[in-house]
Amino acid sequence: MQNHSLALQRTESNDLINAYKLMFEKYPIDSCIDPEQSRPLSLKVVLDVDKNNIKKYGEKFKKYVTKIFDNLKHSTKKPANILKGFSISVITFQELDIVNVKFQKKFSSEYQLGEWIIQLCCLIPIQIAVARNNLFQPLKDGLSSDENHLIELGDDRRHVEIISKNISFGWYEGIFKHFSNKKVKIISSMGEQSCGKSFMLNHLVGTTFDGSAMRCTEGVWMSLVNTKECIYVALDFEGLRSLERTPQEDMFLTLFNTVVSNLILYKNQYTINRDASKMFQKFQDGVKLFESDPNIFQARLCIIIKDVPETDKNGITKEFQLKLDKLVAEEGGDNFITKMYGGGLNIIAWPVFHDVAWFKKLSNIKNKLDKQETKYENAKTFLQNTKLIMAKLKICDWSSLNENLIHIRVATLKRLLPIAVSYGIEQKDPIIEPLVNHDSEEPIDGPIDFLNDEKPIKLFPDDDDHVDEFFIQLSEYLRNHFEKTTQPRKESSYDNEWFSNFDRFLKDIIKRRTLRVQNWYMQNTVKFPQDNSDIIDGKYALGQKIGELARLWTLCGLTCHQCGLKCVKNCGYKENHDHKDKENHDYKENHDHTENHDCLTDHKCHFPCHFTEAHNDSPTPECRHKAGHKGKHACAKMIHLCGKACFLIDKFNCQKVCSKEIGHDDGEHLCQSKRNHYCGEDCSLSIHNTKGDYRCPNKCIISYEEEHDFHRCESTICPIQCPIPDCKERCQSDDHFHAFSDSQQVNHFCGKEHQCRELCEEEGICNVVTEPKKQEETYKGKVEGTVFIYTKHIQLSEKLKCNKKIPPNEFEHTGKHTHKEEGVFHYCDKKCQFCEYYCTLPYGHPQQIHDTKHGNMTQTEFTGEDDEFVYAGYNLRVGDQGTFVLCNFFCKDLGRHRHIDYCQNDENCELSRDMQHINVKVSPNPDKPKDFISHKLFWERTGFKDPYTVQEQQEFAKCDHECPDEKHHKSGSTSFCELQLFHAPISKPPNDYGYISTDGHYFNCENPNNAFHIIFVLDYSSSMSGQDIKPIQDFPIYNDLTKMHNNRIGAVYQAVYLFMNARRNSAKITMPDIPFEYRDLTNLKDLLNSMLQYKANGCTNFDNAIQKAGILIKTHFDPTKVNVIIFLSDGECGTPTNQLNAICKQNKEKGSPLYLYTVLFGSDQHSDSLEEMAKIAQSYHPQNSSPNALRCQFTSTADAVKLVNHFNYVEDSLRKHKPALLKKV
Fold this sequence. Notes:
By secondary structure, the chain is α/β, with parallel strands linked by helices. It folds into six domains: 2-110, no CATH class; 117-394, P-loop containing nucleotide triphosphate hydrolases (Rossmann fold), CATH 3.40.50; 405-553, no CATH class; 600-673, no CATH class; 755-957, no CATH class; 1009-1223, Rossmann fold, CATH 3.40.50.410. A hairpin with a 6-residue loop joins β17 and β18. The longest helix is centred in the middle third of the chain and has 31 residues, at 495-525. It starts with a helix and ends with a strand.
């Protein structure tokens, strides 16, 4: 019986088989993206049972599998065609024979190992980026990486490239390289948190991203699916609008998604939350950042409204479309759809989950993806572009992606130029890599230069090679090949002919190498604008390198110093110096060697002896003279000629022995040079020019017999370098003494066109470079424990080189130097005063307002009414730097707000539509008066366009006072005043809806209980009768007061009256009597009459006063109200320490700490007692106050107007305080 129940239990549940069900519940069964990948599965079960029972167990397994899959299809409604072919077989252990070939063929499946490993790796997603600390942070192999140590600041503009090369996608790097020529499509999933983004992406593409009802994705995760047509890269993004992310971090993720994707699935829960504006705002945030580039903004956006019943589909879609149309109308041409989604927009009402239509709808998305053009022509382009975009987001570089691609491509080609020119390849070790098109990976047409072996010819020396030795060694190799295959020099009767053929042979090799390298550069830059300054600079570098190659392989051709053959050394190649010798300031070019001219042979004549009749043996002996000699060939075996020493043996060009007949009687022994013996003195060419001193090293070849003072060498060309800077070509003149011509000024132009290398002189900025600069490793905030690492990103301006060509034989071109002749653009040179990013409009733009993309607010520091506050998760204090905040996101985090700025007009600073004076000292620089200003005025003062959207600007212009009702805080919503910021108080709600607060704000909600319980404790001792301070004329109740209270106490009554008029709140006034206790202030006349009864008399008693205030708080205690005491006196009295501590302690225990404002009113500026009282009361509050909290404080004033202003400040402090950023001074 027990065995039977165990068997039954086993048949009801089998976790090993249930794993298939769990897998298919979470991940797709059939492949939507590639049906060919939906292959039937088979399960082989091996049991340790008797062979006679195996059939019975097989039936049980099949029945069990059929049951769980039927339940799966019924519960999920998923397409499950592959389950129809799911097979199961059961065998015993005895039948398990894995070494048997027949068994293997029957029970195993065959896969290509490499493909199987790739498919296995693609099941594991990798995290590629996160958004933290208000920054976009790319990862390296799924882990955080700090590449700042790799960045060396300079002007090479390689910061984006360096960062991008430090980004790695782990095991997917090898997969992308394996499929490097395949096209790539990117599909991404984004949306609100916990709305099934990963689940939908998995079932569309076939990936295995994890999903959960809770937050389970951080940053960006990547996976891929490989099909025959292309690679589908899937990106799964964390949910937006979460508590863990700031709007700035959300913007980075949204922008990255938009720029890299082909198709974006944006899921939202519009059926639950009808507020679509916040969702639209996420897209709108990135509109003004990256320059509008059709090459990157090609994505199609599919907004998917989750869980829409079929009956509501049309209504929901229409309602959503109307809201979207409204946003487009408000934002105009800057709306996110037009700017960022070139592939179009779809609004899709998605069926409820577990509806059959939920999965059928995926095929519609698949069709849209099929119609999308591939954004990346191959996987290599995808890797490069995606990493570049990530690097640009990291350093807030909003410049054109195309400019980065051009710069990186040209920089890559320039780095490869030496080996490309030298070997005709891109890499020689460890394996040869040919010159290729870096986009298509196709080799450049034309053979690599091979001769006798399989190694490419090295035609250019490395930096550490000795040029002369390199040339002699390599030219010997080429010369031997030429002589072996074409024309041996020994057999050439005319060395001039041989030299000409050999020179042509070398030029053909150089020409072939040059054409291939030029074609390589052209193919790799043809897709970019050819007038781009980087492209032109690359062409210039290419031309310089090719010029060096051509000059290196230009043969000398003068006579060898040991024989009559032509010198086959190069023409004095000197590329690695500035043509100036530091000691003697001379330089050498063209036929100028470090050593003598050399034919690089054995200098012997190898032709047979001319006197053949004298030789009976065969072969005829070789000539004993030097190679290239004149006259007859004569051997050394027999004496055929005189052979005595030439009488001109000390002359240049002498062949040493007499060539006359034996026994000649003319007296003088003369060699075969006859009377053509040269002078041999140094050539007279010696000049000084802009590139240094030049002395020709050759010897004079004028006959020694000819009288001459001017020595001329064998060279017929002008050896002086072209005077254009950086040009190393020789003068085009064929006159060796061109420098000595009769012209007043001789210019040794090479006769070629030159690239101008001067800087652009147009007004404005040619180019703006964003680069990271590590300001500090660690920033320590002013609040203890606030520490964070940040990187400061700065923009630098640069002038580009002129792109004009200097015509032949001219020193300069006509017109100004400019980096681009047609459609030239120069940036405005105005900087944002907060982030120091340059204006992106053209120089001299007609608009009065500048515009930019904005960066970190490096030139700001925090200010605010609270010394300490929390911002972006950091505990900060006034004076902390705003470096980690972007200009265009600081206000977004604050919602409705007011800015703080220094007073522009200290003497006339009044309340206006966009400004309100601050009546207390605010740090930093507390002695400098400051104003509250509106968001609109804040940006107007910068001179830059407001970077926030129209919707946000409209919201920021509204009043920032909040309804104090606790129900709003509990629900997480906020009810703001419906009026504009800095509005005048109103007394009646518009349309009689909502309520007016006691201080004149209009709220569109129910009237809450009064939030503050305010007690005035006023000193009306005899000293208050002093008339040094009087009520303010033209202020309310002035006439009533001057009749009996034209003194200090009258000024106090007036200030209290104005305060009450502003708040109209429940309040008490304590003198030592209580004339006005917990009364409704709808009739302020009662307040006035009550106060006027009390004249100044008697003594000051702080103990009694504070005690009565405590009694009032206790009598009328309300836990929903904040107790505030305003304590005013003009005299000195002992501190009521015991009484005050007792009241503060009592209120704190009740959960309602007391707030005490002490005011010294009179000519004295200091009161130990009043200051101490404020400190005692503040000690009962937490040290790090929240941004919403008030604070106890002491102030002194001897002016009636300032007293009124101070009471206004107290009134204003009863709203929510928010931090502001202030320009550093």
